[in-house]
């Protein structure tokens, strides 16, 4: 579904991504973890080309994401990739329902009624159908993030990307968002998540990628990774985590 | 002096209000307000377009917009009036009344300043908004139309009202090219009375003060409404709300007896 | 339209002289009113900072008046209105000493003082309260804290607004033309009337104004950069 081949990215002289070779299969859930500054967010943002790459190839569902293409083609590609941000980025001037229906109506040409019904179904799935008329400023962080997930799902993407979805939330709200993500995984969604939530990684991920200094140092099943990491950097990372 | 002021106002209120109309073109306060309202109404869409041009990925658009803005910021309004007075008849082949000259000037001049206001509003939005719009697949224009501009324009509403107040003040320059607006009407009254310049121009100042001040109050009220809407119900009282440094120092000074 | 010929204006000494005299007058008016405005603004700020409600109200009224009455009307009011109230001795003296320019300087200076004092006030208000607390904790008195901690930061914060309003002041010097001051815009009109070369004259006038304004803005940007300590946002 998502395939990185020799992907490299530099910010000037600074190597942000170094020879990334990895693949997320259809229906697979991959968690990307690592210390801060390791390039995890940069990596996930290259998938829908919010960040550019300097060399290598990135394929999404058979399409070369970083090929030279017209703006309209890129927009269409992006609309097929769901993205959830750390800072939610809901549109504050629109109600919850409008946030979810705006893009299906204006980009996919879905008619108002169908879009509305679909939106209500999604809001119910994330547990917020009662807040359809509310505005983002009236919601808690956890509620906003769940709406953001519904907004991304409304475009019916074959894959969802999550960039530290719970890092900006107060601890008591992390659970509600992770529950929604767990539900998506159980339904077979292809997911790539950058997160610090190791419990989620252990229970839900099919594979864990450990990154440091722009490279994927280890890619293993969660059971193996958490009990017996092979790379020394990964071992240090996990022991740092446990020592809190 | 107050009786004299009252006398002047009661004798000339019609002239001040509508100029020589119907025996001449519309003048006085009516002309001033018409000029200002038309000016800002036409300048506003122009301002949005110039702001979008300034932020556009096309270098040609960007540099022309930037050049226009810097020229308007750098030369006096009076020079712009003279240019328009000279160029417009040349461009359309016949002479134009002063009102139209003034209107064109205001539209271009205010358009440039409004574009800066709109641009500031757009750039003040968190970067996440355009990211989210792009991630969903919106094109640049679609993102501007549905996500960025609605928010930016609402947020800069108080500044737009302030610019409207500036526009009203700028209409006074029509006096220099004999546009029959309020200042011109007052000077006509003064030329007729000859011995009461202080009273006449005091009246003029007071009228402008009342109009501009009320609109400024409106702008302040809008500013409070917009800020409340932006903060949302979760806004907590920050340490900065305790009061700015200087007044706190004042408190300290009083407490310690300086 | 005949072809563009800047030399028709620039090479003729009488036109050059008129423009130069106009420019000189613009500089005199702008500079004098700037000095007046700045000094008055500082005085207004100091008055406003005193605990008295009356002082605060008086300065607020001053600022509100000058911001809501158009500058041209203020100049007209000074030159035609207030001058008529002066005793005839003063009027005669002024008549001999360029009354137009004097009132223009007074009018512009008083008007811009309102804007400058608001800029300085905003600059002061934008300092985080922790600064005063820190100064107090270290043992500074009122004057000492103002002098070493608050005023330097206030000036740094207020610099962009002060520069903008300085450019406004410079542009507003052209309004003096309406009360008969023979500054640059007036000179441009005069030269245009005599030479019939509207485009060239206007272009020269525009370029002079642009050069000065852009230089002022560049100076302001340079000062802002210099005033910023390393690493400050």
Overview of the structural elements:
- The complex is a heterotrimer of chains A (244), B (258) and C (233).
- With 244 residues, chain A is α/β, with parallel strands linked by helices.
- Chain A has nine helices and ten strands.
- In chain A, a hairpin with a 2-residue loop joins β1 (2-11) and β2 (14-24).
- With 258 residues, chain B is mostly helical.
- Chain B has one domain (2-257): MetI-like (MetI-like fold).
- By secondary structure, chain C is mainly α.
- Chain C has one domain (7-226): MetI-like (MetI-like fold).
- In chain C, α3 crosses α6, α6 crosses α8 and α8 (142-172) runs antiparallel to α10.
- Chain C is flat and about 70 Å long.
- Chains B and C meet through α3, α4, α8, α9 and α10 of B and α3, α4, α7, α8 and α9 of C.
Brief sketch in words of this structure:
The complex is a heterotrimer of chains A (244), B (258) and C (233). Chain B has 258 residues and is an all-alpha fold. Helices cover 78% and strands 0% of the residues of chain B.
**Name of the CATH superfamily of chain C:** MetI-like
Helix and strand content put the structural class of chain C at: mainly alpha
Order of helices and strands of chain C: HHHHHHHHHH
Q: Which percent range fits the helix content of chain C?
A: over 70%
> Largest interface: which pair?
B-C, 51 and 59 residues
* CATH-assigned fold name of chain C: MetI-like fold
Low-confidence stretches of chain C: none
The number of helical elements of chain C comes to: 10
**Can you count the helices of chain A?**
9
């Amino acid at each position: 579904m998502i395939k990185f081949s020799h992907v490299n990215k530099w910010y000037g002289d600074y190597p942000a991504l170094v020879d990334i070779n990895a693949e997320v299969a259809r229906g697979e859930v991959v968690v990307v973890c690592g210390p801060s500054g390791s390039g995890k967010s940069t990596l996930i943002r290259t998938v829908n080309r919010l960040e550019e790459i300097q060399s290598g190839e990135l394929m999404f569902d058979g399409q070369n994401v970083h090929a030279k293409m017209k703006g309209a083609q890129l927009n269409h590609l992006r609309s097929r990739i769901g993205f959830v941000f750390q800072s939610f980025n809901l549109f504050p001037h629109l109600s919850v329902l409008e946030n979810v229906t705006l893009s299906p109506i204006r980009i996919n040409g879905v008619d108002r009624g169908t879009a509305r019904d679909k939106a209500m179904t999604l809001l119910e799935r994330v547990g917020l159908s009662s807040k359809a008329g509310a505005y983002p400023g009236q919601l808690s962080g956890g509620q906003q993030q769940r709406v953001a997930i519904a907004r991304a799902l409304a475009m019916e993407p074959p894959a969802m990307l999550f960039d530290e979805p719970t890092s900006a939330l107060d601890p008591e709200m992390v659970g509600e968002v992770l529950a929604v993500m767990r539900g998506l995984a159980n339904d077979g969604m292809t997911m790539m998540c950058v997160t610090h939530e190791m419990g989620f990684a252990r229970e839900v991920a099919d594979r864990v990628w450990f990154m440091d200094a722009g490279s994927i140092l280890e890619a293993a099943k969660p059971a193996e990774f958490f009990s017996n990491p092979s790379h020394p950097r990964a071992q240090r990372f996990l022991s740092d985590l446990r020592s809190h | 002096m107050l009786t004299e002021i009252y006398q002047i106002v009661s004798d000339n209120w019609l002239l001040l209000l509508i100029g020589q109309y119907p025996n001449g073109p519309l003048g006085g306060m009516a002309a001033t307000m018409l000029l200002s309202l038309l000016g800002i109404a036409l300048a506003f869409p122009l301002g949005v377009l110039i702001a979008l041009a300034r932020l556009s990925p096309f270098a040609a658009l960007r540099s022309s917009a930037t050049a226009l803005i810097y020229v308007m910021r750098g030369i006096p309004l009076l020079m712009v009036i003279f240019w328009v007075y000279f160029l417009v008849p040349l461009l359309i082949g016949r002479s134009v009344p002063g009102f139209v000259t003034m209107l064109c000037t205001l539209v271009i001049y205010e358009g440039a300043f409004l574009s800066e206001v709109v641009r500031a509003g757009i750039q003040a939005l968190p970067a996440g908004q355009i990211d989210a719009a792009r991630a969903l697949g919106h094109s640049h224009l679609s993102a501007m139309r549905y996500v960025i501009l609605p928010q930016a324009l609402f947020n800069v509403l108080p500044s737009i009202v302030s610019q409207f107040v500036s526009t009203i003040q700028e209409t006074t320059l029509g006096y220099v090219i004999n546009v029959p607006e309020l200042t011109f009407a007052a000077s006509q009254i003064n030329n007729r009375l000859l011995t009461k310049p202080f009273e006449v121009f005091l009246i003029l100042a007071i009228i402008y003060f009342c109009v501009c001040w009320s609109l400024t109050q409106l702008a302040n009220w809008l500013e409070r409404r917009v800020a409340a809407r932006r903060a949302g119900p979760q806004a907590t009282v920050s340490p900065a709300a305790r009061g700015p440094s200087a007044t706190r120092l004042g408190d300290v000074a009083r407490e310690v007896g300086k | 339209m005949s072809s563009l010929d800047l030399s028709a204006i620039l090479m003729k000494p009488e036109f050059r002289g008129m423009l130069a005299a106009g420019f000189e007058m613009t500089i005199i008016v702008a500079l004098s009113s700037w000095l007046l405005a700045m000094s008055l603004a500082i005085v207004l700020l100091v008055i406003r900072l005193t605990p008295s409600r009356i002082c605060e109200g008086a300065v607020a009224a001053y600022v509100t008046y000058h911001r809501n009455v158009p500058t041209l009307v203020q100049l007209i009011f000074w030159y035609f209105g207030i001058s008529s109230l002066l005793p005839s001795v003063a009027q005669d003296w002024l008549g001999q000493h360029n009354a137009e320019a004097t009132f223009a300087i007074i009018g512009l200076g008083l008007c811009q003082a309102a804007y400058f004092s608001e800029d300085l006030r905003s600059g002061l208000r934008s300092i985080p309260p922790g600064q005063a607390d820190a100064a107090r904790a270290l043992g500074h008195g009122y004057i000492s804290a103002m002098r070493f901690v608050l005023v330097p930061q206030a000036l740094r914060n207020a610099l962009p607004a002060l520069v903008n309003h300085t450019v406004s002041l410079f542009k507003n010097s052209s309004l003096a033309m309406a009360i008969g001051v023979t500054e640059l815009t007036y000179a441009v009109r005069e030269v245009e009337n005599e030479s019939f070369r509207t485009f060239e004259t206007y272009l020269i006038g525009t370029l002079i104004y642009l050069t000065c304004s852009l230089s002022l803005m560049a100076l302001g940007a340079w000062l802002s950069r210099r005033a910023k300590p390393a690493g400050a946002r």
